[in-house]
Amino acid sequence: MTVFEKIYEVVKTIPKGKVATYGQVALLAGNPRWARVVGYALHKNPQPGIIPCQRVVTRNGEVAKSFAFGGENAQRELLEKEGVVFESDGTIDLKKYGWFG
Fold first, then answer.
1. Are 61 and 94 in contact, with CB atoms under 8 Å apart?
2. Are 25 and 11 spatial neighbours (Cβ–Cβ below 8 Å)?
3. Percent of the chain scored above 70 by pLDDT?
4. What gap in Å lies between CA 74 and CA 98, rounded to an integer?
5. Which DSSP symbol is given to 90?
6. Which fold has domain 3-97?
7. Taking the domains of the chain in order of start, what are their residue ranges?
8. 90 vs 6, 26, 94, CA distance in Å?
9. At residue 64, does pLDDT exceed 90?
């Protein structure tokens, strides 16, 4: 299994309405130093809608500045449709919505 495949398998297990950080996905995929690789893999997502890359955020609970599948606000919109509520500063409360796989 390739690194990207490992990453995609982890991301597929993040439940609807929850988020994980790039670093968390990296750790669960096999190497805590792969956080940037996770970002690259998600940018190349071969199965949008099946691999829910919108559920991966920064360690501060921020969404991607330019989400690869639909523009800057697409990630936020997808997460809001899943019931994730954003704080007034635009971040996600990881204690409430974080997934700890």
1. yes
2. yes
3. 95
4. 19
5. S
6. Arc Repressor Mutant, subunit A (1.10.10)
7. 3-97
8. 29, 24, 12
9. no
